[in-house]
Design goal:
12 helices; binds zinc ion; about 375 residues; four-stranded mixed sheet; single chain; three-stranded mixed sheet; alpha/beta
Length: about 375
């Protein structure tokens, strides 16, 4: 994610902090200073915020590590001012696996709450836990309640909360992924509306959460819609074979002339009949402007192109293409010979074509 810096690496998973997070720290410090005018309070507020985000990282690691049990890698974990985000390479296929991965995050908070609460009780500081206002008590007591709140909040059965995923996966287990998501999104929107009503009555913060949940439910429903429209389609169904190919050793000047009138955005690059990567029109133009027309195309070539086979599911390919930041992926045969490209446009054409085909089929029957 842009504007993020890496602060740690756990089991090969990069942990990033979005730069706006530091604004939150400054804001918390400033609010504490306004409220109390004491540097100790400012330090306490900032420390509690840092610990909150540390606990959120542990929660996200719960998702990431449990996803690893099912062979799913996590690209990275990013801390945003609104919380954490673990980007999994893909979602688990089987509903029960999705339930395990979704519950693993809140499970971390349950364990932390039990450990911290237990330690407080063992230390004989029971009144700390149940004071008049728990969030102004001792630091351990506040951390205990923080974990209780994070558990409860994440188990709300609405996207994008973990509880929403558990609900979706449970519904998907008895129907199918798309239907499960549609129903879960509907429930999520109902809960979002309740939050907004409660927010207008009691606490504006709840209304904000409601709006956040409303849009989260919509995004998840759209993703499920895409997933079901891609189901059963393979890379071969969206293959474009009539594409221009560049030679890695030709110059960007020559390539620019050859591709001037081409509507193509990205070009496979070959050297001596071997596929080496992909060059985007933008990279070619930049190389031309910065290093001159004699620069070899190879210097503007990305070697991490998405390469798949004819029978790669399109759903998987869309995920890989989006993850790569490119607009297309390349398709080769088993010997590695380039067959063509799959672009986001050719994918949407394939979806439309299949829908039209289905309509024609039902029209023919009536
Ligand atoms: Zn979570």
């Amino acid at each position: 994610m842009k504007w993020s810096i890496r602060i740690a690496r756990v089991r090969g998973i990069g942990i990033y902090v979005h730069l706006t997070f530091f604004l939150v720290l400054v804001w918390v410090g400033w609010m504490e200073w306004q409220r109390s005018g004491s540097m100790a309070q400012v330090g306490g507020g900032v420390l509690f915020t840092l610990l909150t985000f540390f606990i959120i990282v542990l929660h996200e690691l719960g998702h990431a590590i449990s996803a690893g049990w099912f062979g799913i890698r996590t690209k990275d974990i990013t801390l945003l001012p609104i919380g954490g985000l673990a980007r999994l390479e893909r979602m688990p296929e089987k509903p029960w696996q999705e339930i395990v991965v979704a519950l693993a995050g809140p499970a971390v908070n349950v364990i932390l709450a039990l450990a911290i609460g237990g330690a407080i009780l063992l230390a004989g500081r029971r009144p700390d836990l149940f004071g008049s206002d728990p969030m102004t008590g001792s630091l351990p007591a506040r951390l205990f309640w923080l974990n209780v709140i994070l558990t409860a909040f994440n188990l709300i059965p609405a996207f994008p909360m973990d509880g929403g995923r558990v609900l979706r996966a449970s519904l998907a287990a008895v129907t199918d992924h798309a239907t499960g998501t549609r129903w879960a999104a509907l429930v999520g929107r109902g809960i979002a509306a309740l939050f907004v009503v409660a927010g207008l009555t009691w606490n504006p913060g709840l209304a904000l959460i409601g709006i956040f949940v409303w849009f989260g439910a919509g995004a998840e429903a759209r993703a499920a819609e895409l997933k079901s429209s891609l189901a059963g389609l393979l890379a071969g169904h969206a293959l474009q074979t009539d594409i221009r190919i560049l030679d890695g050793r030709e110059t960007v000047g020559q390539a620019a002339l050859r591709t001037l009138a081409s509507p193509q955005f990205e070009y496979p690059v070959m050297v001596e009949g071997r596929l080496v990567g992909i060059a985007t029109a933008t990279a070619l133009t930049e190389a031309l402007a910065q290093s001159g027309p004699a620069t070899p195309v190879l210097n503007a070539t990305r070697t991490d192109a998405v390469v798949a086979g004819l029978d790669t599911p399109l759903e998987q390919m869309v995920g890989l293409i989006q993850g790569s930041g490119l607009r297309s992926g390349l398709v080769t045969d088993q010997a590695g010979k380039l067959l063509g490209a799959v672009t986001l446009d050719s994918i949407s054409s394939a979806i439309q074509l299949r829908a039209a085909w289905a309509d024609a089929g039902s029209a023919g029957r009536s």
